[in-house]
Amino acid sequence: MLNISHINVYYGDLQALWDVSLIIENGEIVTLLGSNGAGKSTLMKTISGLLKIRTGFIDFDSIRLDRLPAHRIVELGISMTPEGRRIFPQMSVLENLEMGASINTARKVRKNTLNGIYDLFPILKERAKQMAGTLSGGEQQMLALGRALMSQPKILLIDEMSLGLSPILVQELCRVIQGINRSRKLTVFLVEQDVQLALSMAHRGYVIENGRIVDQGDAKLLLANTRIKEAYLGIGEEEMIN
Amino acid sequence: MEIILQTIANGILVGALYGLVALGLGLLMGAMKFLNIAHGTFIILGGYISFWLFTLWGIDPFLSIPVVIIAMFLIGLVLYRLALSPLLKLPNIGMRIDTSMLVTFGLIWVLDNVMTMLWTPDTRTIMTSYTGETFRFFGTRFSITGLGGVGVAVLVAIALYFILIRTYFGKHIRAATQDAEAASLCGINVHRIYLFSSGIAIALAGVAGVIVISTYSINASGGISWLLIAFVVMILAGEGNINAIIPAGVIFGLLEAGSVLVVGVPYRQAIALLVFIVVLMFKPQGLFAKRE
Q1: A80 contacts in B (CB within 8 Å)?
Q2: How confident is the model at residue B91, as a pLDDT?
C-alpha cells in the first residue's frame, strides 16, 4: 500500500534520513520506534508532504507521492495527526472537525462522518461549540484524531499521540484506534515514544536510529528483542536473568 | 450643543470610512502576515478606476463599486503571484513581514508613476449631482456621500464577517491564519486560500478608494496618508482582529473630529500619530483584544 523506497531527506544541508525504506500493507498497524531526534517525525512529515525528499521515492497504491504538495496527499487518502496536536485553537470543536473534511470527497459526506466521530469520542459532541483552545490535552488529542479521520483516510499517520496524556486516556485512545483498524480496515502508521504501548498495539514495527532503519519485524518479536529492551524499555540483561 | 452633535456626526461619518480603509490592510496582515505598505496606493488606484468609469461613461461612483471590486480583485491576484507568494519561502514570519514591507514599499513607486502617467499628477474628484448635498436630522447635517460611505462600509464589513464565519472558504482562511501547516494537513490548499485572500484584500482597498474619491479627492501620490490612517486603525483594532476594524475606525474618527474642536484642523494628523503611539505604549494588542 505505502511503499517508501531508499529516501534521503535533508534539513538544508543537514541530512536527517539516510536511505530509509519501509513498507506498510493494507489493514496493518505499523509503528516506528526510536529515541528523540532519531528521525521519526521527519519521516512522518516527509510522507505527508511537509518535507521533500532528495533521492528515493514514496509510492501510495502505485501513485508517486513525493512530488505532491501536502493537501494533494490528503486527497489521495493519507491523513496525519501531527506532533503537538496542532488543532486550530480559535475555532470551535465543530469547525475544527469541519476543517478535517476540507477535501471535496469528504465534504460531501461530512455529516455522516461527523456522527461517526461523535460515536468514537462523545465528549467532542458535548463540546462542539466550545473553542478548541479551551479543551484539555486529552480532549485536544481526541479532536486531532477526529479531525484527521474526517477526511476519510485510507491510512492514518499518528505522531506522538501519548505525549503529556494520562495512562488511562492513552489506553482509551489506543482502544479506539485498534477498534477502527479492525472494524473499518483503516491502516495505521504510528510514531510513539512509549515503546511498550506502541508494540502492544502494532502488528509490525521498525526501529530508527540516527536517521537509519536499523531493525524491523513482528511487534511481538521486537518486544522480546533484548537490544530493544535495553535501548528503549530500560530493562537490562541482568534484570532479565533475575 | 449643536456643534458637539455635529462633531459626533462628522466623526462617525469619517470614522466608518477610516474603518473601510483599514479592512484590506488588516485582512492581509491578519491572515497572511503581509504588511502591505502600498495599501494606500491601491486605495488611490481604486479611486482612479471609479473616476474613469464616471468621466468616460458617466457611471455613478456607488454603482461602479462592483466593477472596481472585480478589477481590483484581479490586480490582487497578480500582486500575490508576482510579489507576495515568493515571500512564503522565507524561513520565518518575522522575515516575511519585514520583506513584504520592502517589496510593497518599492511597489508604491511603480504604482505612483504608472498612475501619474495614466491620470496626470492633477488632483481628481468625482462631482455627482448630489455631491455636497446634505441631509438634516435634528439640526445636525450629514453629507449624502458621507452617509453612502457609512452604508458601504457597514455592508462590506458584514459581507466580510459572513464570509469569514459562515463559508467554508472563510473557515479555511481562519484555519490557515492559525496554523498554515496544520491546514495543509487537513487537505486545504493554503496557496489558493492566500491567493484569493489577497484578491479580496486589494478589492477592499478598491472599495475604500471609491468612497475616498467621492467624499474627498485623490492624487497619484496621496496613498501614504491613507496608509497611515489604515495602519493606526489596524493597530487600534488589534492585529488579526478583523471584526473590530470598523468600530476602531469609528473611535478614531470621533477622536479626530473631537481634536479639531480642541486644537484645530492643522493638528489633525498629529493627533492620529499621537493616538498611534499611546495605543502602542499602553495597549499594543489593540483596544478590542480578547482576554485569553
Answers
A1: 185
A2: 84
Phi, psi dihedrals of residue A30, rounded to the nearest 5°: -120, 140
* The three cell numbers locating residue B115: 498612475
- pLDDT-flagged residues of chain B (< 70): 289-292
> What is the rounded CA–CA span in Å between residue B30 and residue A231?
46
For B186, residues 6+ apart whose C-beta sits below 8 A from its C-beta are A71, A74, A99, A100, A102, A147, A151, B175
**Nearest alpha carbon to residue B215 among B8, B20, B7:** B20
Is this prediction's ipTM beyond 0.95? no
- Chain A residues at the B interface, defined by Cβ less than 8 Å, are 48-50, 69-71, 74-75, 79-80, 82, 86-91, 95, 98-100, 102-103, 106-107, 147-148, 151
Q: State how beta strands A2-11 and A53-60 pair.
A: antiparallel
Total domain count for chain B?
1
Is the CB of B185 inside 8 Å of chain A's CB atoms?
Answer: yes
3-state class percentages of chain A: helix first, strand second, coil last, to nearest 5: 45, 25, 30
B189 close to A (CB below 8 A): yes
Closest Cα partner for B198 from B79, B106, B88, B42? B79
Residue B287, in any domain of the structure: no
Amino acid B9: pLDDT: 87
Domain containing B102: what range?
2-123+148-282
B-chain CB neighbours of A103 within 8 Å are: 187
Q: What is the pLDDT of residues B8-32, one digit of tens each?
A: 888 899 999 999 999 999 999 988 8
Q: Among B168, B175, B184, whose Cβ lies nearest the Cβ of A70?
A: B184
Interface contact A50-B168, CB threshold 8 A: no
CA–CA separation, B107 vs B39, rounded Å? 10
* pLDDT score of A235: 62
CATH code (residue B31): 1.10.3470
Could B190 and A86 be called an inter-chain contact, meaning their C-beta atoms sit closer than 8 Å? no
Q: Which of B185, B189, B191, B242 to mutate to test the interface with A (most CBs of A within 10 A)?
A: B185
In-domain check, residue B269? yes
Identify the band that residue A230 occupies on the pLDDT scale cut at 50, 70 and 90.
confident
Shortest Cα distance, chain A CAs vs residue B95, angstroms: 18
pLDDT of residue B292: 41
In this prediction, residue A242 has a pLDDT band, given cuts at 50, 70 and 90, of very low
Work out the pLDDT band at A97, boundaries 50, 70, 90. Answer: very high
Q: Exposed, middle or buried, A100 (CB in 10 Å: 0-12/13-18/19+)?
A: buried
Element spanning A213, H or E: strand A212-218
pLDDT value for B263: 80
User: How buried is B184 (Cβ within 10 angstroms: 0-12 exposed, 13-18 middle, 19+ buried)?
Assistant: buried
Is residue B291 assigned to a domain? no
User: In chain A, count of helices (H) and strands (E)?
Assistant: 12, 10
**Residue B79 lies inside a defined structural domain of this protein:** yes
Q: Which residues of B touch A98 (CB under 8 A)?
A: 168, 171
For a pLDDT cut of 70, what percent of chain B falls above it? Answer: 99
